[in-house]
Amino acid sequence: MTYVAAIDVGGTTMKGGLVTRDGTIHHAERRPTPRAGGPEEVVGAVAAFVADLARPRDGVRPLAVGLAVPGLVTPTHAVFSAAFGWRDVPAHAFAPGVRLPVALGHDVRAAGEAELAYGEGGRDVLYLPIGTGIAGAVVLSGALYGGAGGWAGQVGHIPVRPDGAACGCGQRGCLAAYASGGAVAARCGLPGAEEVVRAVLAGDARAVAVWDEAVEALALALATYTLVLDPAAIVIGGGVSQAGDTLLVPLRARLSARLGFRQAPEVRASSLGARAGLMGAGLLGWRAAPGA
Amino acid sequence: MTYVAAIDVGGTTMKGGLVTRDGTIHHAERRPTPRAGGPEEVVGAVAAFVADLARPRDGVRPLAVGLAVPGLVTPTHAVFSAAFGWRDVPAHAFAPGVRLPVALGHDVRAAGEAELAYGEGGRDVLYLPIGTGIAGAVVLSGALYGGAGGWAGQVGHIPVRPDGAACGCGQRGCLAAYASGGAVAARCGLPGAEEVVRAVLAGDARAVAVWDEAVEALALALATYTLVLDPAAIVIGGGVSQAGDTLLVPLRARLSARLGFRQAPEVRASSLGARAGLMGAGLLGWRAAPGA
């Protein structure tokens, strides 16, 4: 068996593993992202994770390393991330002393590539992972679309409520300020989105109100996306997609209500779930592997 | 000289002419669209216009007829238009007794095709004609993008002010309810957008306030479009684009203000201006001409 080492570096958690060519994940492991410790500590934590995954197992070493990271990223540099505060970190800084090819990629785009390669796919689809933040992978005519400068898919910063809640990006009323996992947790005073969903199911009034606002904000953003790009389907991924029908049932109803004169596209949860990012990091690694 | 007969059927005005292969317009003529008279009267007015344009001049007859119409449209049928109330009107109904090929096309998409063929173009551009209503032609990687079902580009119904002003489409808070030529005129109690621009320039308080709201609504919609699709340029067309700097200068400033963490794309008026629709109707005609 041959595999690559892959890590999906999220705002809260790093997911790592060894990924075979067909997308199967072995030795999956989660570690916390030490975001509070500053940019260097995050880079160091990724490097330690890479070193552990790069060790030979049964005499076999990974062929390459694939890292999916947030922010602005090229195959060779993590150029900028507001979440981690890093600037122009070269790929080898994440794997010092590991003599393997290292490929970087954008976390959401990598997850979108995994959806295209291993998921249910579709030619005209918005793939929207909702985790600590929200960003989208815009799939048009069967391929990821990056826009004129590679910045397409910033769905999380659509101004759904002009002059509404403050967002980490410096603007107001962004979708992410209402509907990201980070936002719903903060607005409920709970540690994470998982706890919010549990509180919603238990009928907690505050959680129900926050969830309601989140779903309506999502419906507004998805109505806009639908009007502009007429997708066949919207596929929700990331941690928040694990809320299942607690999210999907009211979201479908509210999206339809916001699209009076046309049918809403199908809205479903990703079949890859939270694994998509790690599978996408694996694809990055495979693209960098010798002979690939 | 060979030419086709072309008509751009707008909500207020029909623009007709004879269009040569290179997009040059001869014998341009405007007639009012008798919208208040109901769907049959509009079809009859188009048919009379077609008959006049189809007459031989200096012994030369047009090779074909191209008609750009609003709503849902196929090359052979005007399927549906909320503006005109028509349903499934076959192409030949617009040209009875005229023995020429007749091609129908969507007005905004036809104008977008003209921008691509004759305008300054660009690979990743939103072409946004603002006339009686607002719709967009989404140009991605150098081609018009229609979406999964041909409904892409409904920029005029982006919900910029959730639960705001009522729109003709039945929803609330749509861009078109604030920024279309029809909306600014109605909100000022003036006959058309041209009069509104004159009142703005004269410092009329009501017109200034309405214009201000229109520009802010446009900035919100264009910020959203930019975040999702990262265009290189946004090209404003239609009658309202003739406001020039009265529109463009505040719009650029407000769009930049709504895009704190990234640069705004270039925003400019179409170099084709209000001719784009007629030139697009000409392209439709040329595509239907014998030997084309």
Plain-language structure description:
Two copies of one chain form a homodimer. By secondary structure, chain A is of the alpha/beta class. Chain A folds into two domains: 4-110 and 275-288, 2-Layer Sandwich (Nucleotidyltransferase, domain 5); 121-271, ATPase, nucleotide binding domain (Nucleotidyltransferase, domain 5, 2-Layer Sandwich), CATH 3.30.420. Helices cover 34% and strands 22% of the residues of chain A. The first copy, chain A, contains eight helices and 13 strands. The first copy, chain A, has helices at residues 39-54, 107-118, 176-179, 181-188, 193-201, 205-229, 245-257, 276-288; strands spanning 4-9, 13-19, 25-32, 65-69, 72-73, 77-81, 86-90, 102-106, 125-129, 137-140, 143-144, 233-237, 266-269. In chain A, strands 3-2-1-4-8 form a five-stranded mixed sheet. In chain A, strands 11-10-9-12-13 form a five-stranded mixed sheet, sandwiched between helices. A three-stranded antiparallel sheet of chain A has the order 5-6-7, with no helix packed on it. In chain A, helix 7 links the parallel strand 12 (233-237) and strand 13. The two termini of chain A are 16 Å apart. The model of chain A has no long low-confidence stretch (mean pLDDT 93). Chains A and B meet through helix 6 of A and helix 6 of B. Chains A, B: InterPro entries: ATPase_NBD, ROK. Chains A, B: GO terms for molecular function: glucokinase activity. Chains A, B: Keywords: Transferase.
